Automatic annotation (TrEMBL):
Record-linked Gene3D superfamilies: 3.30.465.10, 3.30.70.2740, Vanillyl-alcohol Oxidase, Chain A, domain 4
Residues spanning the membrane: 37-56
GO molecular function, a single term: D-lactate dehydrogenase (cytochrome) activity
Cofactor(s) it depends on: FAD
One Gene Ontology biological process: lactate catabolic process
Compartment annotation: Mitochondrion
Name under which the protein is recorded: D-lactate dehydrogenase (cytochrome)
Annotated InterPro entries: FAD-bd_oxidored_4_C, FAD-bd_PCMH, FAD-bd_PCMH-like_sf, FAD-bd_PCMH_sub2, FAD-linked_Oxase-like_C, Oxid_FAD_bind_N, Vanillyl_alc_oxidase_C-sub2
Organism: Wickerhamomyces ciferrii (strain ATCC 14091 / BCRC 22168 / CBS 111 / JCM 3599 / NBRC 0793 / NRRL Y-1031 F-60-10)
GO cellular component: mitochondrion
Length: 559
């Protein structure tokens, strides 16, 4: 018992010592630190005495890292970020380093990097960056991070800015590091099917580059998304059913760590059993562990022919049953998307489609291949399965062009919902997008229960799902006074998914809004381990603070 108390004393001393800011400090902080050192030293002295008395091994005085496998939030002290004057000293150094024309203090700029209008979680008024910088190379990012680390300046990396879970909110206003000057495609290895790019290359631009040669990349998130941010959120999109998510599509990364160290995660071969999987560690880490400055991605052969079939059903459950059947029958689809009746209605009303579809739950099934005859055969098989699963309509595109037209319907779903709600419900309408994913066998049940809850609530919502992966979105629109209502729906949807062995986020990430669900999903030990990794790699907690896990015990949010 003595031993435990002794160790705990030493541990809290070591923790605060390790985590304390190394930057310039206020008097208050110096006093606080000294108190801790005095307390720590007296405990240390007591420990040596006790150790001597009870025959315990003496602790190593150089030991600076808490001897635990995880880091619970109660074991840490608040981060100490740079005060205003110090922060601007640091900014000046950065400005000298990369040139005045590559930084900005302009108020409109600062505001434009605070959020985007379709985000589920919005920043508070003061939560915007204090300076934007635009580095042009890995080397510059590294130099900037060295300065930021020295001065304890919070840094938020930013690529396309389309993420929607508050992933880049400046919760601790500091530096926003925009990668927009790093937008080159560096190397395309056709024979190896991989491409190396800088982080601000957009996925659409990359596809436009690859397409003439007959290639494409897998993930297709929101229009405007860029590789750095796509790695940040481990995004996916409609193609994931066939080509996988970002997690399956990155071969290797160059990353700048919190203190400016530059690392490579892997070489270029498809496989490797060389040590820890560092590539995987950074994908989905939302800029909290390092800044990606270069990425090598898998490239896929773009299907020569594609066919999209539109299948209508009386009920959502019939549609999801059909998806299960397609998977069981080993029918390889390139994508299968679910649109509920409201979604079809808003797309129809958007006037952007040539054809009008039945306003009823609908599956869009996309198949691809190198021969048209194979596709025709497969389409027939899909039609047969749909008939056995109560479909009430089946229409298949006759050509690639027609297929593309049908696919635009899916791509405009999100905007059509917002447009419709603005025009018909309230010009100030807001939007909250849920993003759960469950094992396919649970999908029907979870969608059905969710859609029942939504219709009872009377808020206007459309449902859109990447159902091949068990992932679906409710695009909940709400008037200001309906905020609590949609919050409850979103919370219930997440709980329902977790109860069914699912995840709170299939592709948008945790950001600031889903931290508590991450704990519910994986358990506190797992998030405490994430915190341990975070502290090991970013001891001053400067990289994208407060995302994914709580890092400040004084953060007013409970989780
Ligand atoms: C209309 C619409 C539709 C969408 N559809 C989908 C969809 O189908 N599938 C899907 O997965 N998502 C979708 N999204 C969400 C969004 O497009 C994705 O999350 C995308 O991956 C974000 O990329 P970005 O470049 O915009 O990232 P950003 O918003 O710039 O950043 C995302 C996160 O990554 C971090 N980050 C940025 N750059 C770097 C870097 N270089 N190194 C380390 N961290 C970095 C940021 O700090 C942030 O935490 C949609 C969004 C919209 C608005
Ligand atoms: C800053 O930006 C300008 C152009 O905007 C560029 O020419 C210059 O090389 C950049 N870097 C430095 C160190 O000034
Ligand atoms: C490492 O993790 C990534 C992302 O999760 C995955 O794609 C990859 O197959 C893993 N293994 C290697 C050797 O990179
Ligand atoms: C599509 O919307 C138009 C209004 O823009 C409406 O007149 C038409 O009936 C709708 N079509 C279907 C199939 O519901
Ligand atoms: C966390 O680990 C402890 C052992 O330290 C164990 O008793 C507990 O059940 C674990 N909690 C969860 C949620 O797995
Ligand atoms: C619920 C339902 O009707 N499922 C049917 C879907 O189609 C397959 C045959 O292709 C049937 O076996 C399922 O019973």
């Amino acid at each position: 018992m003595f031993r435990n108390q002794f160790l705990r004393g030493i541990r809290s001393f070591s923790t605060s010592h390790t985590l304390r800011s190394q930057g310039k400090k206020s008097i208050r902080q110096i006093l606080k630190d000294n108190r801790q050192i005095i307390l720590g030293s007296s405990l240390f002295g007591l420990g040596i005495t006790l150790g001597f008395t009870f025959g315990i091994t003496r602790p190593n005085p150089d030991w600076k890292f808490p001897e635990s496998s995880t880091t619970p939030i109660d074991n840490i002290i608040p981060p100490q970020y740079a005060f205003r004057a110090d922060m601007f000293d640091g900014f000046n150094k950065i400005s000298k380093l990369i040139g005045e024309s590559n930084v900005s203090y302009d108020n409109d700029d600062l505001n434009s990097f605070a959020t985007n209008s379709y985000s589920t979680h919005l920043p508070k008024d003061n939560q915007k960056p204090k300076m934007i910088c635009y580095p042009r190379s890995t080397e510059e990012v590294s130099q900037i991070m060295k300065i930021a680390n020295e001065y304890s300046i919070p840094v938020v990396p930013y690529s396309g800015g389309t993420s929607i879970e508050g992933n880049f909110i400046s919760t601790q206003p500091g530096l926003l590091l925009s990668l927009s000057n790093m937008d080159s495609i560096l190397q395309f290895n056709k024979d190896d099917l991989d491409v190396t790019v800088q982080p601000a290359v957009g996925w659409q631009d990359l596809n436009a580059y690859l397409e003439p040669e007959g290639f494409m990349i897998g993930p297709d998130p929101g229009p405007g998304g860029q590789i750095g941010g796509m790695i940040g959120t481990s995004c996916s999109g409609t193609n994931a059913a066939r080509f996988g998510t970002m997690k399956e599509n990155v071969l290797s990364l160059i990353v700048v760590l919190a203190d400016g160290t530059i690392i490579k995660t892997k070489n270029r071969p498809r496989k490797s059993s060389a040590g820890y999987n560092l590539t995987g560690l950074f994908i989905g880490s939302e800029g909290t562990l390092g800044i990606v400055t270069e990425a090598t991605l898998k490239v896929h052969v773009k299907p020569k022919f594609e066919r999209v079939s539109v299948v209508s059903f009386p009920k959502i459950v019939d549609a999801t049953n059909m998806v299960t059947k397609l998977i069981q029958e080993d029918i390889v689809v390139n994508a299968v998307e679910l649109l509920d009746d409201n979604m079809i209605d808003v797309i129809n009303k958007s006037g952007q489609l040539n054809k009008k579809w039945k306003v009823t739950p609908t599956l869009l099934v996309k198949i691809g291949g190198s021969e048209e005859s194979v596709l025709s055969k497969l389409t027939k098989k899909i039609e047969d399965i749909s008939i056995e699963n109560n479909s009430i309509g089946f229409e298949s595109a006759g050509s690639n062009k027609e297929s593309e037209d049908l696919w635009t319907a899916r791509k405009i779903g999100f905007w059509s919902t917002i447009e419709y709600a603005k025009q018909h419900i309230d010009p100030n309408i807001k939007v909250w997008v849920t993003d759960v994913a469950v094992p396919i066998s649970k999908l029907s049940k979870v969608i059905e229960e969710t859609s029942e809850e939504v219709s009872k609530s009377k808020v206007f919502c459309t449902i859109l799902g990447h159902v091949g992966d068990g992932n679906f979105h409710c695009i909940l629109t709400y008037k200001p006074d309906e905020y609590e209502k949609v919050k409850t729906i979103s919370e219930n949807t997440v709980r329902r998914a977790i109860l069914n062995e699912g995840t709170c986020t299939g592709e948008h990430g945790i950001g600031v809004g889903k931290r508590k669900y991450l704990i519910e999903e994986l358990g506190i030990n797992s998030t405490d381990l994430m915190r341990k990794l975070k502290f090991a790699m970013d001891p001053k907690r400067i990289l994208n603070p407060d995302k994914i896990i709580k890092i400040d015990p004084e953060d007013p949010n409970k989780f």
